[in-house]
Amino acid sequence: MKTIAVTGGSGKLGRQVVAALLDRQYQVVSLDQRRADLPCRQLQVDLSDFGQVAGALQDADAVVHLAAIPSPNGFPYAAIFANNALSTYHILEAASQLGIRKVVSGSSESSYGFAWSPAPLSPDYFPIDEEHPQRPAECYGLSKVVNELTGEMFHRRTGMQVVSMRYSTIMTQQEFARMDAVNPNRYEKSMWSYIDIRDAARATVAALEAEGLGAVSLNVTSDDTLSELDTEDLLRICYPDVQARKTRLTGRTAVVSNRLAKEKLGWQPLYSWKGN
Questions:
Q1: Across-strand partners of 126?
Q2: pLDDT digits 0-9 by tens, 31-42
Q3: Which ranges carry the NAD-dependent epimerase/dehydratase domain (predicted)?
């Protein structure tokens, strides 16, 4: 595995992943609709055009697919769903035809439905793990569910390894300085869940290098919450209706579980908004 194609290489996480791959001596090509100041080869590609996608992946040994509209805002809903679902299908279809055996695809914790739900929505239990039902009520979360199912289909058809990364809110050190960790309701719908961008990039590279994963979806989140309060205090205030616990939540333990990512990838988050 020498050459890695990164879609969305000019994006927030994409830039960090490109840098992490170059640090590990991979050759990297960024596939994006815009050019950026990147230290790698760049191709301007419309991922809605299958021919362009197949052409751009000709020399790739593996793919990290991060290009997407990142929320249900700013575009018509149909455009958000169509862009995210079709681009992922094109990446996986082209990869299968070209004999590419590994794809890491950017999914989201939004696929569970809580973050963007138009009506109040509570989990079945805490902490939320990958076995929890996905119940999106909007186009963005739905697109991520469809993309994960698409990855499973291609694995069944070709044996391709497809790792769907359910990233929580990806944050930089500068963003940590602006956050509100005092108000318990500030990050209630996103379950106070976050991941430092450096840890997100490390998890992405680990997923690319891992073997024998088949098709799997993994929560990529920190070990703690975006709050000064202890986790059980947060839950008593914001989710008193949810009494079920799969594991004990002590201190400021995260309410979205990253246990499976740690087990499958040999990875663990190193950074916290509280400092290290």
A1: 245
A2: 999 999 999 999
A3: 4-210
